[in-house]
From TrEMBL:
<keyword id="KW-0175">Coiled coil</keyword>
<keyword id="KW-0547">Nucleotide-binding</keyword>
<keyword id="KW-0479">Metal-binding</keyword>
<dbReference type="InterPro" id="IPR000967">
    <property type="entry name" value="Znf_NFX1"/>
</dbReference>
<feature type="compositionally biased region" description="Polar residues">
    <location>
        <begin position="54"/>
        <end position="64"/>
    </location>
</feature>
<keyword id="KW-0378">Hydrolase</keyword>
<dbReference type="Pfam" id="PF13087">
    <property type="entry name" value="AAA_12"/>
</dbReference>
<dbReference type="InterPro" id="IPR046439">
    <property type="entry name" value="ZF_RZ_dom"/>
</dbReference>
<dbReference type="Pfam" id="PF20173">
    <property type="entry name" value="ZnF_RZ-type"/>
</dbReference>
<keyword id="KW-0963">Cytoplasm</keyword>
<dbReference type="InterPro" id="IPR027417">
    <property type="entry name" value="P-loop_NTPase"/>
</dbReference>
<dbReference type="GO" id="GO:0004386">
    <property type="term" value="F:helicase activity"/>
</dbReference>
<dbReference type="GO" id="GO:0002376">
    <property type="term" value="P:immune system process"/>
</dbReference>
<keyword id="KW-0391">Immunity</keyword>
<dbReference type="InterPro" id="IPR045055">
    <property type="entry name" value="DNA2/NAM7-like"/>
</dbReference>
<dbReference type="GO" id="GO:0005737">
    <property type="term" value="C:cytoplasm"/>
</dbReference>
<dbReference type="GO" id="GO:0031380">
    <property type="term" value="C:nuclear RNA-directed RNA polymerase complex"/>
</dbReference>
């Protein structure tokens, strides 16, 4: 966004210099609502106009702070040279010494202004250039001159004039294009900051002169010197626009009295003329309205064109002359209601804003001010009703008013917000618009569509809404997207309020919802990739990468308008329509549940005001109210009625529940209304732990029916409150109190109070609220209480069951309506016509056109007539004139023109929707009524349970949400803890009718109630707020004055308060901060003076001042701008916390870190999470805290336990607001805010400052920018106190107890690392440890020093004389030194043993080996000497028993004897693989060996095969390149193809490098190393025998006749020997006819070196040998691997077969129970995708075993390609190796085709079976029929081709399978067509069935002829014949014979054995001696392959023979 590319933060090394801020200059949304309604609301590099230090005149320093944004590299940045921010500024603009000496003349100024206007109105580039120039130093000098000029109102050439100079200047400043340009933000801020000056010192005189000129030049008919009316209006508009921008860009501008006066003057001159709506006048009016709103503390509210003028006085609201004019609500207003939700009675006001209320913005809402409590004329009601009305309207404005204003903003800027986003800048513009102008944070979601409506009993009518993922989330991976949504605060379930907003033209719709269900997949369910996700339905927030879905529910179930709107939106924006124009908006700051119940209860009280207790004291006391009659003028508030005549015994209040011996005598402490209060107070103060103030507060609480107990922090308010409750419960029986209500605003405060009650011994407590994090408090939940105290009401169970059944029945009816609405428009109209106009529907169905007549009626053809009626157009049907709907209805349906049909259809469609909507509204209303009855039945039992409790703890929100249950309780006492932070409306709604006594405990000088709008706060305004919504009832009563009368005594008295004044928490120095500023009468308890000093720090109280700016906010998140962060402060806090934790003094929880912002707390937690430090055990810490005398007996000899732990686990982290009522020994505060605008954010209020300053007991350290805070009066006073006590500065002094003379100061996080790394100081510790050594560590605290483990060597001697070799901190223990030759009792001599065993040799275990005969098995085993008599010795001999597999048992004898079984055979299989030279390494197993898993050894000079050995290799395609000097051409064949070059028999003529002798090797081979040179070789090499025929040595061989071949293993032989060895003549035979080499399919294993058998693959001379054998090996691997894969897939198909029926039934049941057809369609789609998965795997397998994928085919392709590149004759291009295809055909290709047909047949029959189930809807069945039909024709063609191919290659088994599948597919096509309604000619069908029957008869013949290959298919043939003869649903089941064949096939090629080929060329292996022992047939074609006694059949060849035949 615009902040990118701005100057960076301060550079390192300057920790205290102010860095350039890249934060926004707008008001913090988290602290105050933004007053910046302009895109220029953020500011950077603010120009204050201050005088730089040591400069007599105004000078600016230019320097470059980094790259300038938007390419403005030439413009310097304005700053001030080294000016300290905490000095006073003495610069004034009217000082003549500060004015530069050169100024422009009048003409030059006008020329400059004219040129500027031309440039900003010309092009964007010229505009940017001019504004950049104006923001430069020279330009700002011109601005200053224009600001300080005295303008003439008359024509002048000597002075600048208002019309020609000032107006032009204003036009430049207010130009809309300039203000909206993001690239000019920085420059515009600079210019406007100069205009404003310091504290308005330029703006005030300039606008004063401007207003004077406007007043003087105002048009007047009597005075011709004025301006033209239009020109004057334009000048006024320019002035108001610039003035408004000044106010928006400078927060403190509204506080300047001068600017306030100018604002009122502008409003005055703007209102003196009758301005009619429209044009410039409307803009002026809008600006004036916003100006006054800012200056008077009001919000910037959009205002319409309604005006009150002097020419229409009848419409001006009237009031007394000295009072504010009040525009009353509703019909009481002189102008009438503002909108449809403006009523005089709050009972008529909707809680949520209505559409009319949202779009009505021309008049402000009626909001009662605080004066309504005093003046009768300020409100239209009296008494309690007035009170309730005030609270209702203000609370609604603070909550629903935020929704209204935000929705209004969206509608006003609809086009901008919904405009298409084409570039990232478009997003930036939208975010800026929302950030600057939205009155409340919002989140917008685009691309909205509505999936479905449904109804739930618990939540009501719900809607599933689909929307686009945000731009950032779309870029996430699937796991990160799941994680983001899981942690995100967006769309929180049951909390977030969401609106669907639609705007079409001038009309708009706004519907409010609550998030009902927020679905994010769990870790186990989530997918980690996005493959295939985009095709499926969107069912949650994070699975889909582009879209998300959320379930919403209507806020109000029974609102008929919202229901009708929702139905309309659901029809218009369904997921199928894809229409734009709908926006979903979330309001993250508004939690509907937190205020809806309050407003609802206020309505209830308003209707029944007499039910509110204490109305006499709570109702507003107006100026004309009569005095209150009281019984006691000194105590006007009477005591509670239940105490009349009663005496309370407080003795039990002060007994210790944990100490039975600590009791107080009964009746020693009593309370009675007849006894004097002073006496009771004195008695309590003397006989109880209460001080005088606490005793007085307790007596006061029982003396008044409404009591206030107030006290400063730490005075024990909660303690006194607990004693009050204990005292009441001790007298509960005599008083008849019923349950005592204990209420709090937050669950946190409630848990604290209930915890104190538990400590006081109160157990009978029930808690209603959200789950508590404290386990023993959660055990008090009402749900748990009900289970333990069940209270049954007779007959209640039956009534509950009846109402539940009724509710479920209504739910089903509503769900049916939702399904109808979702079914589609045609189905909807069809049903409507069937119900209401059946004749019209029949007329449409009975088409008069034969071509359109509907065929045989089928269930899936019902909607077709309407579709045909709409689509068919008769040319003659042309309307003459437009007819009414009645006329159209009466006309023949098929005679209507297309337009008329469409009109009539739309009318029916809307009528159908309206009827369903009306039915929906009726049912939801009925459901709501019955649900209330159902709920009330449960409340009966709950009420009886609650009446049994002593204490009911509940939050104020929880109370109103359970109002029906609680308002009937007989509770007489209500206690409110922390009442000062509870809104008055919350207290009022908690006062149920039975309450007689309200005890409010709190402190109104601490936190006030939280509200959303600062405009309604007491803080807004100088004289107190205007509305004071955040004034609690506690504060209002505490400040109230009552005119009371008793007899003749009439006086004004305040409300009685029980005041506490002795604090027991803070050290006096800390308490002085709040004593001086807020509590002048606060006293310190003597124990606070005894607190110890803070460990490691010189001062217990300090303010660490710094100048490190806060971090910029994230502009993309509207909530982020509310919560600030300051990473520098966070690092400083972490360093200080870690330092204090290292002191070893503070236990867990005694150090607390406070900050006003949640985000800062989050950063602190993240930083502390990663810090691990030492921690002393708490028990040891308590021991260490003893003084030396107490510890002398035991501590000195014991080292404390030191362990590692996270610092975070020992520190409490909280925000200031959540820490009220809590305390800690040490408090560290991070203020966060540091900016040049001096905005201190949340901590500007004295109440919050009070809380922050009063939490610490021993010490407090504030880290913050004092100059940012000092403008707040209370902070100013606090800073003065810090400075007076010398507790203020940029560095904190630490204190080292080891080196007190060492002064250590820290001012940055890095200082802690360098100055006190171990928690002490930078010096070495040096103190002596207990062991006597000196401590070598850095200085650390004493307590940690005592826990140090000395790392030096031990110096303690041993008794044996050996030294101790351990570290000093370790115990010496036994001596580990070794001694030698020690005699043992057994007679052996130990060669060595540890010293500690020498004293007792019997303990040594002799290790000598001796023989022992085992008594059980008589085996003789060797054992260690010490175990020769051990009965536990186990026999280690091998068992040796013969296992069923024939192998001996390899387990130990003892193992088999103990277990009683031999277990599994563990012998390695060891069978040699037939496809490689390895053997099977798997342990003994049944069935075939698995494929070889070792790395493939196939390699060539170009590389190595990357596959495993059991996988087919990829043939090398690189050129061979073998060459020699005696042949012209080198081998140009691919490396995997046998070479086309003949071997050379001549000696190599090259010279060896080094010796330069002739090479001894054969030509064409690599020359050997020099050591093999025959001239240079050693005798050993020369004497080696290399000719095994002639027995010649290397020295004797004639190299010229018989060169030597050197092998890679190092051996060497003569060429003739190796040629014979490799049988080279076999591989170079020539085909006489063709004349080219032929590929040989060899069968022998590749031979290695004759000496060492090392594989030989790199001897080019024998390439043809190696490659030929290698090709054969690759083919074997291919066959074996493919067969194994085939068996695996076949097994998966069998598994699928076994589960089909069950899966079908499960799917049908799910579809039947689906709430609508869309869900059913998704279920079927998912099922089809799953069933297709295996189908796809089979297809992949089929492709992988195609002929082109086989090794020989690949090699042939490589050869053909290479030959094509070399040949010059086109006729030879297609030549290839001469090999017979049948010789390499393995049958696997056809086997894969059959498998694919089987899978496809199974899937299609499965779909068809499901489609024939009648419980599925017609549409879903049709979709399945269509899916089956789409696959059948290709399937039939494929099996037809397969049958023909199998006949050619003699594969009868596969031919039979192809015929069977052809029959199955053909019959399926017939049945599926019938199900679709397609009529098939009878003769055609009969022909197909006859043809398939004949084909199956042929199958039976083939199966009988080839029983070995096709006999397995007898069962399948029979099932297919049944299907062909009868129309049944086929159920495919693989026969047992087929399973056996597949298993045998898998084993065929996997084991050891020889390879053979049958007469048809099909391969097989034989394992016994090379040929079968019995007669056998080929597994593929059935031809005989072997006879008895290993005799082969004629035509069967081994691979060796085959090799020779093709050679």
């Amino acid at each position: 966004m615009a902040d990118q590319g701005r100057p960076n933060a301060r550079q390192s090394g300057q920790p205290h210099r102010r860095r350039q801020s890249n934060t926004s200059n707008r008001s913090n949304a988290g602290d105050t609502p933004s007053l910046n309604g302009n895109p220029l609301a953020s500011s950077q590099n603010r120009y204050h106009g201050r005088r730089p230090r040591n400069q007599p005149s105004q000078q600016y320093q230019t320097h470059q702070l980094g790259p300038r944004p938007h390419g403005n590299h030439g413009s310097p940045v304005l700053s001030f040279r080294g000016q300290p921010r905490y000095r006073q500024n003495n610069y004034h603009t009217n000082n003549e010494n500060n004015r530069p000496g050169t100024e422009l003349s009048v003409a030059a100024l006008q020329e400059f202004l004219d040129a500027g206007i031309d440039r900003i109105e010309c092009t964007e580039d010229s505009r940017n250039a001019f504004i950049g120039q104006l923001a430069s130093q020279s330009g700002l000098e011109k601005v200053r001159q224009l600001l300080e000029t005295e303008y003439s109102t008359a024509y002048s050439i000597l002075k600048p004039t208002f019309q020609f100079h000032c107006v032009r200047f204003l036009r430049i400043l207010s130009n809309e294009a300039v203000l909206r340009a993001l690239s000019l933000e920085q420059q515009i801020r600079t210019i406007y900051n100069v205009v404003y000056g310091f504290n308005g010192e330029r703006a005030i005189p300039f606008f004063t002169r401007t207003v004077s000129c406007l007043t003087a030049l105002q048009p007047n008919d009597d005075d011709q010197s004025g301006m033209d009316q239009d020109e004057w209006n334009e000048a006024l508009r320019l002035a108001t626009t610039v003035f408004l921008n000044i106010l928006r860009m400078n927060q403190n501008a509204a506080l300047q009295p001068g600017l306030q006066d100018i604002g009122r003057q502008l409003a005055k001159i703007a209102n003196t003329d009758d301005m009619t709506p429209g044009g410039v006048l409307s803009l002026i009016h809008q600006d004036i309205s916003n100006i006054l709103s800012i200056l008077t503390g009001g919000a910037e509210v959009p205002i319409g064109t309604q005006r009150f003028t002097k020419k229409d006085p009848s419409k001006r609201p009237r009031g007394p002359a000295n009072e504010e004019i009040i525009d009353l609500p509703g019909r009481l207003s002189a102008l009438g209601p503002r909108h449809d939700n403006d009523h005089e009675l709050i009972s008529d006001i909707s809680i949520l804003p209505t559409k009319d209320e949202i779009i009505s913005d021309y008049r402000l809402e009626f909001l009662p001010t605080r004066r309504a409590y005093e003046l009768a004329s300020q409100h239209h009601q009296e008494g309690v009703r007035r009170l309730i009305d005030i609270q209702f309207r203000l609370l609604r404005e603070d909550t629903s008013g935020q929704l209204r204003d935000a929705a209004r903003f969206i509608l006003q800027y609809w086009n901008e917000l919904t405009a298409p986003v084409l570039t990232p800048r478009d997003w930036s513009v939208k975010r800026k618009l929302v950030r600057d102008l939205s009155p409340s944070p919002i989140r917008m979601y685009f691309g909205i569509s509505i999936q479905r409506l449904h109804f739930e009993v618990k939540t009501g009518l719900e809607v599933a809404v689909e929307f686009d993922q945000s731009r950032a989330v779309r870029r996430f991976t699937a796991p990160k997207r799941h994680w983001w949504w899981r942690k995100s605060a967006e769309l929180r379930e049951s909390k977030s309020i969401v609106a669907l907003i639609e705007k079409t033209g001038e009309d708009a719709n706004v519907i409010f919802f609550i998030v009902a269900k927020r679905t994010v997949p769990s870790h186990s369910d989530q997918s980690n990739n996005d493959e295939g996700v985009a095709e499926g339905p969107v069912n949650d927030l994070s699975t889909h990468p582009e879209r998300a879905m959320i379930t919403l529910r209507l806020v109000t179930l029974t609102n008929p308008q919202d229901q009708a709107k929702l139905v309309g939106l659901a029809m218009k924006y369904s997921t199928t329509s894809k229409q734009p124009g709908l926006l979903m908006v979330e309001f993250p700051r508004i939690i509907y549940k937190s205020y809806e119940g309050i407003l609802r209860c206020l309505k209830f009280i308003h209707e029944n005001p007499t039910n509110l207790p204490f109305g006499k004291w709570l109702a507003p006391r107006l100026d004309n109210s009569a005095a209150l009659e009281v019984q006691d003028i000194n105590s006007p508030v009477p005591p509670p009625a239940y105490l009349s005549g009663a005496t309370l015994d407080f003795s039990a209040c002060f007994a210790d529940p944990e100490n039975a011996n600590h009791t107080v005598p009964a009746n020693s402490l009593t309370f009675s209304l007849t006894e004097g209060q002073d006496v009771m107070v004195k008695n309590l103060a003397e006989r109880s732990p209460l001080d005088h103030g606490q005793a007085k507060a307790l007596v006061s609480a029982f003396s008044h029916e409404i009591s206030l107990t107030q006290g400063p922090p730490g005075c024990g308010k909660s303690y006194v409150g607990v004693k009050m409750v204990v005292g009441l419960l001790a007298n509960k029986a005599s008083l008849g109190l019923g349950p005592i209500l204990c209420i709090c605003y937050t669950n946190h405060a409630l848990d604290q109070f209930l915890n104190e009650l538990l400590k006081a011994g109160i157990k009978n407590i029930a808690r209603i609220g959200s789950p508590s994090p404290i386990s023993h408090i959660e055990a008090l939940s009402f749900d748990t209480y009900k289970k333990a105290h069940q209270s049954k009401v007779r007959g209640l169970g039956h009534q509950i069951t009846t109402t539940r059944t009724e509710l479920n029945g209504i739910r089903e009816q509503i769900s049916e309506i939702c399904s109808k609405l979702e079914a589609g428009s045609v189905v909807l109209v069809q049903g409507y016509l069937e119900e209401h106009f059946g004749g019209k529907l029949r007329e449409i169905v009975d088409s008069p056109f034969p071509c359109l007549s509907i065929g045989p009626e089928t269930e899936n053809s019902v909607p077709r007539p309407l579709e045909l009626w709409l689509e068919h157009i008769e040319t003659a049907a042309t309307p003459v004139e437009e007819r009414s709907l009645d006329e159209l209805f009466d006309s023949p349906a098929w005679s209507l023109a297309p337009v008329e049909r469409l009109r009539l259809y739309q009318h029916w469609h809307q009528s159908a929707i309206d009827k369903l909507t009306q039915r929906l509204q009726y049912l939801t209303s009925d459901f709501d009524a019955r649900k209330k009855v159902h709920t009330s039945l449960f409340l009966e039992g709950d009420k009886k349970c609650l009446e049994q409790v002593d204490i009911l703890g509940i939050t104020t929100v929880g109370l109103v949400n359970n109002h029906e249950l609680i308002r009937t309780l007989p509770a007489k006492v209500i206690v409110c803890e922390e009442a000062g932070e509870v809104l008055e409306s919350h207290i009022l709604t908690a006062l149920i009718p039975s309450v007689q006594h309200a005890i409010l405990i709190g402190d109104h000088l601490q936190l006030r109630p939280k509200i959303s709008s600062r405009l309604l706060s007491k803080e807004k305004g100088r004289d107190g707020g205007k509305y004071n919504l955040d004034e609690s009832l506690f504060e209002r009563l505490a400040n109230a004055q009552y005119n009371v009368v008793h007899g003749n005594d009439d006086r004004t008295v305040g409300f009685p308060i029980g005041q506490l004044n002795i604090q027991r928490r803070m050290h006096p120095s800390i308490a002085n901060l709040v004593r001086t500023t807020l509590y002048p009468e606060l006293e310190d308890h003597k124990r606070t003076t005894l607190y110890p000093e803070v460990a490691g720090v010189k001062r217990r109280l300090f303010w660490l001042d710094h100048r490190n700016y806060e971090d910029p906010s994230d502009p993309s998140d509207p909530m982020e701008s509310m919560s600030k962060t300051n990473k520098w402060e966070a690092r400083m806090v972490v360093a200080l916390v870690t330092y204090l934790a290292r002191q070893g003094v503070y236990k867990a929880g005694q150090i607390a870190v406070l900050t006003p912002y949640v985000n800062q707390m989050r950063i602190l937690m993240e930083m502390l999470e990663n810090i691990i430090d030492y921690e002393i055990n708490e028990r040891d810490l308590e021991d260490l805290e003893l003084d030396d005398d107490e510890a002398a007996d035991g501590l000195r000899g014991n080292r404390p336990e030191v362990k590692q732990s996270k610092v975070l686990d020992r520190v409490r982290m909280a925000t200031v607001d959540n820490f009220q009522g809590e305390e800690a020994e040490i408090i560290i505060v991070s203020l966060v805010r540091s900016n040049d605008r001096k905005e201190c954010g949340f901590l500007r209020t004295p109440n919050r400052i009070n809380v922050l300053l009063s939490r610490a007991k021993h010490g407090m350290y504030i880290i913050g920018d004092a100059t940012t805070s000092m403008n707040v009066p209370m902070w100013h006073n606090v800073i003065e106190l810090f400075e007076q006590g010398h507790n203020f500065g940029p560095k904190l002094q630490l204190h080292c107890t080891r080196h007190p003379e060492k002064k250590t100061f820290v001012g940055s996080p890095e200082d802690f690392e360098s100055q006190c790394p171990e928690g002490g100081c930078a010096e070495k510790c040096g103190l002596r440890l207990r062991c006597g050594h000196s401590c070598e560590f850095k200085c650390h605290p004493k307590l940690l020093h005592d826990g140090v483990r000395c790392p030096k060597d031990c110096s303690r001697p041993r008794n044996c004389g050996h030294p101790c070799r351990r570290k000093c901190f370790e115990t010496c223990g036994i001596c580990p030194e070794m001694v030698y030759n020690v005699g043992l009792p057994c007679g052996h001599v130990a060669a060595r043993m540890p010293c500690w065993q020498r004293d007792d040799p019997s303990r040594y275990l002799c290790q000598e080996m001796v023989m022992r005969i085992m008594s059980v098995c008589n085996h003789q085993v060797k054992v260690r000497c010490f175990r020769k008599t051990d009965p536990n010795v186990k026999c280690t001999e091998k068992c040796g028993a013969t296992l069923p597999c024939g192998h001996p048992c390899l387990r130990s004898c003892s193992e088999c004897r103990v277990s009683g079984t031999h277990g599994m055979c563990t012998k390695v299989c060891g069978l040699a693989y037939s496809t490689c030279q390895h053997d099977c390494k798997k342990t003994c197993h049944k069935g075939p060996c698995p494929p070889c898993g070792r790395p493939c050894e196939v390699r060539c000079k170009h590389g190595k095969c990357p596959n495993k050995c059991g996988e087919a290799c990829f043939p090398c395609a690189e050129v061979c390149g073998w060459e020699c000097e005696h042949q012209k051409e080198k081998c140009n064949m691919p490396c995997s193809v046998p070479c086309n070059k003949l071997p050379c028999d001549k000696r190599c003529e090259k010279l060896l490098p080094g010796c330069k002798h002739q090479c001894p090797s054969v030509c064409g081979e690599k020359c050997p190393p020099q050591k093999y040179c025959r001239e240079c070789a050693t005798p050993a090499i020369l004497g080696r025998r290399i000719d095994y025929f002639m027995l010649l040595t290397y020295e004797e061989v004639d190299l010229d006749e018989d060169p030597v071949v050197f092998l890679g293993c190092g051996h060497y032989f003569t060429m003739s020997n190796l040629d014979d060895y490799f049988e080279l003549e076999k591989y170079y035979s020539v085909n006489r006819e063709i004349g080219r080499p032929r590929v040989l399919l060899g069968g022998e294993a590749l031979r290695g070196c004759p000496d060492c058998r090392h594989p030989l693959r790199h001897i080019d001379r024998y390439n043809r040998v190696f490659k030929t054998v290698l090709l054969d090996e690759l083919t074997k691997r291919f066959v074996a691997r493919s067969t194994s894969q085939y068996a695996d897939l076949m097994q998966k198909l069998r598994d699928m077969e076994s589960k089909l029926e069950k899966q079908q039934q499960e799917l049908i049941e799910k579809v039947r129970l689906a709430s609508n057809e869309t869900i059913g369609r998704k279920l079927i789609t998912t099922y089809k995708q799953k069933s297709k998965h295996l189908w796809r795997l089979v297809q992949q397998f089929k492709n992988s075993v195609a002929k082109t994928e086989q090794p020989l085919a690949k090699v042939n392709a490589l050869y053909a390609s290479a030959l094509a590149k070399q040949t010059k004759d086109d006729s030879d291009v297609n030549q290839s190796f001469d090999f017979d295809q049948s010789k390499i055909e393995t049958g696997i290709t056809y086997r894969a085709d059959c498998l694919a047909a089987k899978a496809q047949c199974m899937v299609l029959w499965d779909w068809y079976t499901i489609s024939m189930n009648r419980t599925i809807t017609i549409a879903l069945r049709n979709s399945l029929h269509d899916a089956v039909a789409g696959e059948l024709n290709p399937a039939i063609k494929q099996v037809t081709d397969l049958r023909k191919d199998c006949q050619k290659v003699h594969l009868p088994g596969y031919e039979v399978e192809a015929r069977i599948y052809h029959a199955l597919f053909s019959i399926l096509k017939i049945q599926n067509d019938k199900a679709k309604g397609i009529t098939l000619d009878t003769e055609v069908e009969a022909g197909i069935r006859t043809k398939e029957s004949n084909s199956l008869a042929e199958c039976e013949v083939i199966a009988r002829k080839f029983p070995g290959t096709a006999g397995r298919l007898h069962g399948a043939i029979g099932e297919a014949k049944k299907l062909v003869q009868n129309e049944i649903i086929y159920s495919h089941v693989t026969s047992a014979e087929e399973n056996i064949v597949v298993a045998a096939m898998a084993a065929r090629f996997s084991g050891a054995g020889d390879w053979y080929y049958c007469i048809n060329g099909h391969p097989f292996t034989i394992g016994e001696g090379g040929m079968p022992m019995e007669e056998a047939r080929c597994p593929e074609c059935g031809q005989p392959v072997g006879g008895r006694n290993q005799m082969q059949v004629s035509g069967v060849r081994s691979v060796t023979e085959l090799e020779e035949s093709v050679g």
